Amino acid sequence: MPDRGPKTPPHSRDLRKGRISEAGRIYHIRTTTAERQPFFADLHIGRELVHALRFQHERGTVESLAFVVMPDHLHWLIVLGDGVELRTVMHSVKSFSAQQINRCIGRTGAVWQDGYFDRALRAEDDLRAVARYIVANPLRAGLVTRIGDYPLWDAIWV
Could you tell me the residue range of the domain that residue 62 belongs to? Predict the structure, then answer.
């Protein structure tokens, strides 16, 4: 098999190469726990992450359109606020939630993998379809038989 060059790491500390944070741009963010540990299988721990997401929304750094907290990762659909860098938002969410989670379970150590995956949506993307994809993750993973039965999601519309 021919060598295709270095593999791109699954996560990046910043936006994908060549991208910039754009105010008003819609991003689908995915980030994973360290070693895919299922911290968020515990509802109380998952609510700590939801608190961090809502804090960003309430302070205006993002408009949160949809999210789902899976046992070992997060999907989040946001509109980036004015004068805000996506990496700063993600650092804040991950830092605050890691501190709270470690405090709650009496441990130290990494909660999150480095970086995150981002996808900037284009005008032709179906926003409602992306939001539905995000909130349907627990259903596809077999965690519930109805989306409404999963406690760690929200959307402004689906």
Answer: 26-153
Let me know: does 152 contact 48? Beta carbons within 8 Å.
no
pTM of the entire predicted model: 0.87
Say if CB 79 and CB 60 are below 8 A apart.
Answer: no
* Helix %, strand %, coil % of the chain (to 5): 35, 20, 40
Which of 157, 155, 156, 152 has its CA nearest to residue 73?
152
CATH code, domain with 54: 3.30.70.1290
- Output phi, psi for 9, to 5 deg: -60, 150
pLDDT tier at 119, thresholds 50, 70, 90: very high
Residue 29: pLDDT band (50, 70, 90) is: very high
* pLDDT tens profile 55-74: 999 999 999 999 999 999 99
The angle at the Cα of 43, spanning 40 to 49, to the nearest 5 degrees, equals 55
